[in-house]
Design goal:
single chain; alpha+beta; Triger factor/SurA peptide-binding fold; Chitinase A, domain 3; five-stranded antiparallel sheet; four-stranded antiparallel sheet; about 50% helix; elongated
Length: about 425
């Protein structure tokens, strides 16, 4: 999964570089100046410097890959702050890798980049040439890649075995998705700007406003998300796919409901930072099929005695595996109807089971000379936007590991000696 995310990031970077063409002369000409001004120090992380050259390189890289061809002063400031945060994080990640004796040579990094370039229809030389034309140091990009790969190895090695998605968690998550499949749905992308401490709130708010302005002026939402967002979805350009209102934070859901398709929200204050949301599409719910594994209970009497027999089964029911034995004891016949689509049932049967939870016996009804009820042994919602159990488990695993990685990095930052200039 992580390898696929790296491919996505690399593809977005490569596409941004190839499409942009770097027509902005200031980006092209600044490289020579940077080479001669690399002696300045922008920050010190545990006695290791981040140079002004590093900071300018990363700022330029962020602006270019975000699709900002002619950045405003506010955009440059926002990109510079993001660049400095990223460089500090990478410095801490490399230092942590050294602690675990994990290293990666330039040759190893180039082999990774070569494979990624090949998978995206390019060669490493082509990619490096585009970096040079943009005035971006190849070594700077190598260092960025090295930090990302080593950090993934540390997090995966230390914590992958500790992340356990239980069957109960999986069933609950799938049930929530299935239950909300009939509600209005939104295809959205997100950018989350983190506020690590209260004194950073104003700067984060202003930076978020600047990003919204740049996006509304033509910058790619996906590329901005890749470079600026603190959410795990940043790896895929902020794409959340199709979601229902109940899956979003309440303050975000309220805004999403009112935004026209194709528009971007103003920054939304949320716990821990600011959210920017793009609404790519909307649709009514119900683009799914509900399939039920049903058993029919029948008593050859349409009176109180028949209803009581059904009630006795309902009160003693503990699962479909023991249903036949329980029904025989109470004089009730069991017919296996198998898997049936809800829409294929008669209105009378549909009313009995549409909202009946799995593993429950319905109310009884009178049908001719019989008393009947239905048992839902299994409910399955299917549709193009309903994930399989494996897809959902992979997604939940990645989300949990990403949260652990963020907490791990926050702890490193809190314990580090960081001086910015």
């Amino acid at each position: 999964m992580k390898q696929n995310l790296n491919k996505t990031i690399f593809k977005g970077v490569l596409a941004a570089i190839l499409i942009a063409g770097f027509a902005n002369v200031s980006f092209k000409n600044a490289y020579a100046q940077d080479v001669t001004l690399n002696e300045g120090v922008a920050a010190i992380v545990n006695d290791e410097p981040i140079t002004s050259f590093d900071l300018r390189q990363r700022t330029r890289f962020i602006l270019i890959t975000a699709g900002v061809a002619s950045p405003s002063q506010d955009a440059i400031i926002a990109a510079s702050q993001q660049a400095l945060n990223s460089l500090i994080n990478e410095k801490l990640q490399i230092q942590e890798a050294k602690k675990y004796k994990l290293t990666m040579s330039d040759a190893e990094v180039d082999r990774i980049l070569t494979n990624q370039a090949k998978q995206n229809g390019a060669t490493l030389d082509q990619f490096f040439n585009e970096l040079r034309q943009a005035g971006i140091s190849i070594q700077s990009y190598r260092d960025k890649t090295r930090a990302e790969v080593l950090w993934q190895r540390i997090v995966s090695g230390r914590y992958s075995s500790r992340v356990k998605i239980t069957k109960e968690q999986l069933d609950d998550a799938l049930a929530r998705i299935q239950a909300s499949a009939y509600k209005p749905q939104y295809q959205v992308s997100e950018i989350f700007i983190e506020v690590a401490s209260p004194d950073e709130d104003e700067r984060a708010r202003l930076g978020s406003n600047t990003l919204v302005e740049q996006i509304r002026n033509g910058a790619s939402f996906g590329r901005v998300a890749q470079q600026f967002s603190f959410s795990p979805s940043a790896a895929t350009g902020g794409d959340l796919g199709w979601v229902v209102q109940g899956e979003l934070r309440p303050e975000v859901a309220k805004i999403v409901d009112t935004i026209p398709v194709g528009q971007v929200s103003d920054p939304i204050p949320v716990q821990g930072g600011y959210m920017i949301v793009a609404v790519r599409n909307k649709r009514s719910g119900g683009n799914v099929s509900l399939n039920l594994d049903l058993r029919q209970l029948v008593v050859a009497e349409n009176n109180k005695k028949g209803a009581k027999a059904i009630d006795d089964v309902r009160n003693q029911f503990k699962g479909c595996d023991s249903l036949k034995k329980l029904a025989d004891k109470n004089g009730v016949t069991v017919n296996e109807l198998g898997k049936v689509a809800l829409n294929d049932l008669s209105d009378e049967y549909k009313n009995l089971v549409e909202n009946l939870p799995e593993g429950k016996v319905s109310n009884s009804i009178q049908s001719g000379a019989n008393t009947e009820a239905l048992v839902v042994c299994n409910r399955e919602v299917t549709g193009e936007d309903i994930p399989t159990a494996q897809q959902l488990e992979d997604s939940m695993f990645d989300q949990e590991l990403s949260l652990i990685a963020r907490r791990y990095l926050r702890d490193l930052r809190r314990e580090a000696a960081i001086v910015t200039r």
